[in-house]
Write a sequence for this structure.
């Protein structure tokens, strides 16, 4: 009996230490899946959550890109650029809500998956486009720009995974940016020519034959 008690007593600190370590690991994983600047999901965290949401037939994939972001950095400094990214992320996250997910894919590019309960996502994104164009709180009102949005309804392209839907949303976003349209839905036909997931017209791309 004494031997058993001794073993249990010795195992206690080990078990407690492992519990603390497990908690630290979980917190580290959550932290790694959050962008330190904006608090949004990183690409990995976004992909995990978005892939689950895409099982819902009402899912819509949105891609957002800040217009003329380099000019903001060049003219007003990186601190102003960072503040603009944080404001964009906060407004996007508010629009998405708890039912969806928003992430920062890198630089000034953001993505979201939302559940379109009432079939009004096009109208709501038009409103969001106006909200994203507002100057960030606490910044010089001159430090503002627009955000181009492209979106695609998952059910329009059955069988496509998140990567394919993001490419379609990316093409729509680029068309919106080029045409200064603000928001554009991905067409139901053939994608604009891409190579390795990059838009035609970018350096290093080649149009598909």
């Amino acid at each position: 009996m004494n031997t058993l008690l001794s073993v249990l007593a010795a195992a206690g600190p080990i078990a407690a230490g492992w519990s603390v370590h497990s908690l630290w690991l979980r917190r580290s994983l959550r932290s790694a899946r959050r962008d330190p600047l904006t608090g949004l999901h990183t690409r990995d965290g976004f992909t995990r959550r978005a892939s689950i949401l895409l099982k819902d037939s009402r899912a819509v994939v949105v891609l957002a890109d800040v217009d003329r972001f380099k000019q903001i950095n060049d003219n007003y400094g990186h601190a102003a650029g960072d503040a603009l990214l944080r404001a964009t992320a906060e407004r996007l996250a508010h629009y998405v809500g708890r039912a969806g997910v928003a992430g920062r894919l890198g630089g000034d590019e953001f993505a979201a998956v939302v559940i379109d309960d009432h079939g009004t996502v096009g109208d709501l994104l038009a409103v969001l486009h106006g909200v994203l164009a507002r100057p960030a709180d606490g910044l010089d009102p001159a430090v503002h720009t627009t955000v181009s949005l492209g979106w695609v309804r998952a059910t329009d392209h059955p069988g496509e995974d998140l990567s394919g839907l993001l490419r379609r949303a990316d093409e729509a976003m680029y068309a919106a940016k080029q045409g200064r349209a603000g928001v554009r839905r991905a067409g139901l036909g053939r994608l604009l020519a891409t190579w390795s997931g990059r838009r035609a017209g970018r350096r290093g791309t080649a149009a598909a034959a």
Notes: Confidence is low (pLDDT under 50) at residues 20-31, 190-198, 200-209. The CA atoms of residues 163 and 190 lie 16 Å apart. DSSP finds six helices and seven strands in the chain.
